[in-house]
Amino acid sequence: MAAKADVLKEFQSIKGNGKAKAESLYDNGYTSMEKLLKASKADLAKVKGMTPKAAGELYAALKAKPKKEAAKKPAQKEKAKPKEEAKEPAASGEAASEVQIVEHGEKVYTPKIKPELTAKEQRQLVIRRQIKKRTPHFLRAEGFRYKKIPKNWRRPTGYTGKLRMNLGYRPSKVRVGFRGPVDVRGRHASGFVEIPVNTVKDLDKINPKTQAARIGGTVGTKKRLLIAKKADELHIRLLNFKR
What does the pLDDT look like over 138-172, one tens digit per residue? Predict the structure, then answer.
C-alpha cells in the first residue's frame, strides 16, 4: 500500500484538486488512485465538504486523466526508437493516429509581435512606467471629503478654492510633471502606435514594425475574424482580439 503522502501528492496533481480535497478523499476511503478512478459522480458527491459541482468537475478531470496518460506513452516510445526505426512507417493505422493526436493536442506557444524601438524609445518607455507608478489618482475639489461628489477630476475654478490655491492637506492637481516622455506619449504599453481599424483595407496602411491595430467597437464578429486573418498574413499585431 502506497504511503499517504504519495497518495495525497497524486491526488493534488488532478486539475482543481487542492490539499484539503485530497485529504478529504483519503479520509473517505479513497486510499489510492485506482479506487478514485472507479468512483462515480454520486460517490464523489457524498465526500464530506464536496459540493455537487465540485464532484462533477473532479469526475470530469478523472475521466480525462487516463486519456492524457495513454496518449503520452506512444510519444515516449517514438522518442526511444533508433533513428532508422523512426523513418519507417507505422505498423498500424491506430498507432499513427495516436501520434497525430498528441501532435495536434499540444498547444504551441506563439510569442506576441513586438515593435522595433530605438534605444531612446526603450528608455522612455521605462521612464513612463516609473512616472505612472508614482502618479496619484486625481480628485476634484472636496472629492476626498464628500461621498456625493464623483471620484473624478475637474479643474478647480473657485476664487477662494483651497485646491486651486494649492493650500495644505489638499490632494494633488493635474500638472505637466505627471506627463510621460514626448516620443512615447499615447502609445500602447508594448511600445506600438495604436491605429484604429474598421475594415480589412485599413490594415494595408499599417506599418507592422512600429504600429499595431485596434479593431473598432462597432465592428461585428464576422468582420473581426476577417481582419484577424488578414492581420496574421501581414504579421500585424491586434491589440483587442483574443485567439
Answer: 999 998 889 999 989 999 998 999 999 988 888 89
> What's the CA gap between 57 and 16, in Å, rounded?
8
Separation between Cα atoms, residue 235 and residue 239, nearest integer Å: 13
CA–CA distance, 192 with 194 (Å, rounded to integer): 6
Handedness of CA 117, 119, 124, 125 (dihedral sign): positive
CA distances from 145 to 63, 165, 171 (A): 57, 18, 11
- Partners of residue 212 on adjacent β-strands: 194
Cell numbers representing residue 43 in the block: 460517490
All 3 cell numbers of residue 242?
483574443
Angle between helices 93-105 and 52-80 (to 10 degrees): 120
Q: What is the pLDDT of residues 164-212, one digit of tens each?
A: 998 888 889 999 989 999 999 999 999 999 999 999 999 999 999 999 9
Which segments of the chain are extended strands (E)? 193-197, 211-215
Rg (CA), the chain: 29
User: What distance lies between CA 119 and its chain's CA centroid?
Assistant: 29
In angstroms, the CA 56 to CA 47 distance is 12
Q: How many CB atoms lie within 10 A of CB 58?
A: 24
Q: Which residues contact 220 (CB under 8 A, 6 or more apart)?
A: none
CATH superfamily placement of domain 4-105: 5' to 3' exonuclease, C-terminal subdomain (1.10.150.20)
pLDDT band at 27 (very low <50, low <70, confident <90, very high): confident
CB within 8 Å of 69: residues ≥ 6 apart: none
